[in-house]
Design brief:
This protein has 373 residues and is an alpha/beta fold. The protein has two domains: 33-78 and 191-353, Rossmann fold (3-Layer(aba) Sandwich), CATH 3.40.50.1100; 79-189, 3-Layer(aba) Sandwich (Rossmann fold). It contains twelve helices and twelve strands. α7 crosses α8. The longest helix has 21 residues, at 192-212. It is globular and about 60 Å long. The structure holds pyridoxal-5'-phosphate.
Length: 373
C-alpha cells in the first residue's frame, strides 16, 4: 500500500531543477591559475557569519573568532557545500544524471553530495566503508539522510576502500552500460575543482575581516581529505594575506597531508611548499571517528558556554587541538593572537556517539518529572 502511494507520487514529485550553473569569475589574485572553473552553482548560503567567539578559559590576550561554515545550507552540509558548488556545476555541465562518491559509513561528504544531487535532480551512488558490509547498516546519523533522499548505498570493507577509485570507475562503467551518465566525485570532494570552493572562501573572508576590522593572524580548521586546506592555503598565499593557516588532521599524519595538499594545489596550477600550511599533527587521538572522553567533554562545555555545537569527528578534534596548543606556554605555532576557527559542520556525526555522550550528562536533581524536585 505504502509502496503504491510512493511510486504514484514519485513522478509528480520529481525535482523541477531551478538551479543552473552560472559562469564563474575568480578573484583577481587567482586569475592566472590554469585550473580556473568555468561554472559554479549557487548551492551555499554565502557569506556565512563571522563573529567573535567568547570561549571562557582562553588565554586573556587571545581573541577568538568563528566562521560559521556549518551554516552553508543544503541540510547543514558545512564545508562540503562550497566544494559541491563547483563539482556539481561541472557534473551538470557535462550532462550527468548520476553522481558517484565514497567515504566512511557516516561520511558528511557522501551525505552532502546525495542531498545536493537530489536537489539538482541527479541520482547518487555512495560507496561507504563499513566493518560489516553484509549487514543492513541501519538509519543512524548521516545514513538516515542518505537513505531519505534515495541514495543507493554500496557497502565495502576498509580494505576494499583502499581501491575506492577503481571501484568507483567500475561502478561508473556498470551504470554507463545501463544507459546512465555518471560523474565521479572523489573522497571528500577534495580534488582541484572542489578546492576552488575554499580558495573562493578566502575572498569572502577577506571582505568580512576588513569590514569587521578583525585583524586576523591565524586560521584553524579540521582536515580530513585535504581540499579545505588546499583551497585556504593557496588562497592566502596567492592573495598575499599575512595570516598563517593551520590544519588539524583528524586522521593519518602530517606527511600524508603535505603530499595530498601538494598534489591538489599542483592540480590547481600552483606550486606548494610545506611552509604554506601548518599541519597540527598529534590530535588524531584514538583514530578517525573515535573519540576520547576529554574531546567529548570539551565539546559539551563549549556547547554549554557558547551555544556552538561542534562534532566529534572533525570540529571537536580540531578545537581540542587549538585549545591544547593555546594552553601550552609560548604558543609558538601561532603567528599572533587573533585566531579564526572555521566551523566546518558535521552535526549529524553526534548521533553516532550517543552511548559515549550519555555519561557526560548529569541526572537532574529531584528527577525528570516536572514539580518533583
Ligand atoms: C565536518 C567536516 N569538517 C572538516 C572536514 C575536512 O575537510 P577536508 O575533507 O576538506 O579536509 C570534513 C570532511 O572531511 C567534514 O565533514
Amino acid at each position: 500500500m505504502v509502496e503504491n502511494i510512493f511510486y504514484a507520487r514519485n513522478d509528480e514529485l520529481k525535482t523541477d531543477c531551478s538551479f543552473r550553473p552560472q559562469s564563474y569569475s575568480p578573484p583577481a589574485w587567482a586569475a592566472g591559475l590554469s585550473s580556473q572553473p568555468a561554472v559554479r552553482i549557487a548551492l551555499a548560503q554565502r557569506p556565512t557569519p563571522l563573529r567573535r567567539w567568547a570561549v571562557a578559559g582562553m588565554p586573556a590576550d587571545v581573541e577568538l573568532w568563528i566562521k560559521r561554515d556549518d551554516q552553508t545550507g543544503i541540510t547543514l552540509s558545512g564545508n562540503k557545500a562550497r566544494k559541491l558548488e563547483f563539482l556539481l556545476a561541472d557534473a551538470l555541465q557535462k550532462g550527468a544524471d548520476t553522481v558517484i562518491t565514497c567515504g566512511g559509513i557516516q561520511s558528511n561528504h557522501a551525505r552532502a553530495t546525495a542531498v545536493a544531487a537530489r536537489e539538482l535532480g541527479l541520482d547518487s551512488h555512495l560507496l561507504l566503508n563499513h566493518p560489516q558490509p553484509d549487514r543492513n547498516p541501519g538509519l543512524v546519523g548521516n545514513l538516515l539522510l542518505d537513505r531519505l533522499v534515495g541514495a543507493q548505498i554500496h557497502l565495502i570493507t576498509y580494505e576494499e576502500y583502499q581501491q575506492r577509485e577503481t571501484l568507483m570507475r567500475q561502478l561508473a562503467d556498470r551504470l554507463i552500460a545501463q544507459g546512465r551518465k555518471p560523474c565521479i566525485i572523489p573522497e571528500g570532494g577534495s580534488n582541484a575543482l572542489g578546492s576552488w570552493g575554499y580558495l573562493e572562501a578566502i575572498r569572502e573572508l577577506q571582505e568580512q575581516t576588513e569590514q569587521a576590522q578583525a585583524g586576523l593572524t591565524d586560521i584553524v580548521f579540521a582536515c580530513g581529505s585535504g581540499g579545505t586546506a588546499a583551497g585556504l592555503s593557496l588562497g592566502v598565499k596567492r592573495s598575499g594575506w599575512p595570516v598563517r593557516v593551520h590544519a588539524v588532521n583528524v586522521c593519518l599524519h602530517a606527511d600524508y597531508f603535505h603530499k595530498k595538499v601538494a598534489s591538489i594545489v599542483q592540480g590547481m596550477g600552483a606550486e606548494y611548499s610545506p611552509d604554506d600550511l601548518d599541519i597540527m599533527d598529534g590530535y588524531v587521538g584514538l583514530g578517525y571517528a573515535k573519540s576520547r572522553p576529554e574531546e567529548l567533554l570539551l565539546m559539551r562545555d563549549v556547547a554549554r558556554a557558547t551555544g556552538v555545537i561542534l562534532d566529534p569527528v572533525y570540529t571537536g578534534k580540531a578545537f581540542f587541538g587549538l585549545w591544547n596548543e593555546l594552553s601550552q606556554a609560548g604558543r609558538a605555532r601561532f603567528k599572533g593572537a587573533k585566531i579564526l576557527f572555521i566551523h566546518t559542520g558535521g552535526l549529524f556525526g553526534l548521533y553516532e556517539k550517543l552511548s559515549e555522550l550519555t555519561p557526560l550528562f548529569e541526572e537532574p536533581q529531584g528527577g525528570w518529572r516536572y514539580g518533583a524536585g
